Amino acid sequence: AFLNKVFTRDIEKIRLGRAGYAFACNQAGGIIMDGVLMHVGDDDFVYVQADGEFPPWLVAQSQGYNVKIEDIDSWVLQIQGPNSLRILEKICGIVKSEFPYYSVMQTWVNGQQVLISRSGWTGELGFEIYSLGADFDGEGLWAYLLESGKEFGLLASDIGSMHIRRLEAGIFDYGTDIDEGLTPFDIGFGRLVDFAKPEFVGKSALMDSPRDQLRLTGITTDGGIPQRGDKVFLDEKVVGCITAGAYSPQLKTGIGFVRLSQPLTSSTAVGALQIGGQIKGHLTALPFFDQDKRIPRGLASDVMY
After folding, report:
1. pLDDT value, residue 304
2. Which of 64, 204, 205, 299 has its C-alpha lying 20 to 30 A from 151's C-alpha?
3. What residues in the chain have per-residue pLDDT under 50?
4. Which InterPro entries does the record match to this protein (predicted)?
5. CATH architecture of 2-71+178-204
6. Does domain 214-305 have CATH number 2.40.30.110?
7. Checking DSSP bridges between strand 253-260 and strand 269-274, what pairing results, if any?
């Protein structure tokens, strides 16, 4: 009951051993946090939140509920890419057929207990490993994973490569792309607002919110790379700004996210003003490719397993 109060989606639909993307909103319907909610025990859930002070808000909302809220202070590593599930099977015996997209499981890796979810921040086939316990040996796990993944071509990378892939995959970053000035409907996630369930924080406001006016969308550019803060123009009028941008190796062009001040349709020709002049572009529906998420689901024919 408590989780259904603080999140907009119906939490009862997230079965044991499964996870789901979930928003928390304020009373005005604005997004105050996004993340992945994992159902790890009969009455136990783990919420992997974006950056921000979310636990105090949960505590404030918990008055009258018999719940325990704690920060488990977990660290996470992501292994993403075509051979990722081969590595998963090698390190802990979990096979792809028994661990579908957005599954979660507690298991042991190299003598340490971990929480593993088949998810990620890249839109690639992959999984995440979360530490459990204060005495966790992160350096030991890191070394073990790199050694175990050598035969599969595993390489260590940084947030830069993740940033490019999350843009290509249409994955938003709280505080960078979305904040409490936007509702789930504004960013194309109205499907995660369940009005059929009882009262939840922000329900009344969301029921009165526009449901078909996207205020966050993609942009592809010609001859330049959009940068955060660039103003976006249509017929010399400012219609939005770039929240994030990069060069896309997949599309071989500049891509980014645009926060719009007015609703516009995909394929609208726009310009982005930056130092050195204006670059031309077109608004684009998100994600930029793999709209059905066949790659992370392991269904893409061009992904080798």
Report:
1. 42
2. 299
3. 303-305
4. GcvT/YgfZ/DmdA (IPR028896), GcvT/YgfZ_C (IPR029043), GcvT_C (IPR013977), GCVT_N (IPR006222), TrmE/GcvT-like (IPR027266)
5. 2-Layer Sandwich (3.30)
6. yes
7. unpaired
